[in-house]
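Record type: monomer structure entry
Structure origin: computed from sequence
Chain ID: A
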Amino acid sequence: MSLHNQTLQPEQKPKITGKRAIREHNERQILAAAEHEFALAGFKGATTDAIARRAGVPKANLHYYFSTKRALYLKVIEDVCEHWLAAAQPFDETDDPKAALGGYIRAKMEQARTRPYGSRVWAMEVIRGAPAIDEYLHTTLKPWVEKRSRQINQWIRDGKINPVDPMALFFMIWATTQHYADFACQISVLNADSPLSDEQFADATDQVCKIILTGIGLKA
């Protein structure tokens, strides 16, 4: 059998796919555990020992994928931001402000419900003055906001929504939606000491959409 034929044997492919799948799985486990630990203890309080235990991997494996705690922290922050930016997909799918903004708000609410620890890590970093992500804020978040702001200003010029400051609108959306992640404990206390049920969260999402969209002249 020639070397050429050996390299094309289909039974050899799963080994590569398996290694890749194992690596991706381990990285996901480590990132999820790190997100949880950083949210609970902050960057200084979290340890790679605790993260490895939560991820269910040896500490040596953690450092194989992420050489330092700082490298892991930066990856968590970057992953959270990319996840949030992906919520703006409705802006790329339609030029209808109600559909775009409504879809964005609903996506942000869903992210607050399903990934609260990521929101808390981000909030703690920004409250500290964003020492680790200042460059990322300038090179990634700022251009993203500027692009979306131009779209909102076009809707204003076209008479589709009331005149508003696009940045003020984004700040309101972020503050409101992320409140459901960052202040979940407070919400539980005010909800008879119980987390919001799926039905209650769906109603809260409808209310947030209604209040914000009505405020800029759209029917929710």
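Annotation 1: The domain at 8-67 is CATH 1.10.10.60 (Arc Repressor Mutant, subunit A).
Annotation 2: The chain has two domains: 8-67, 79-215.
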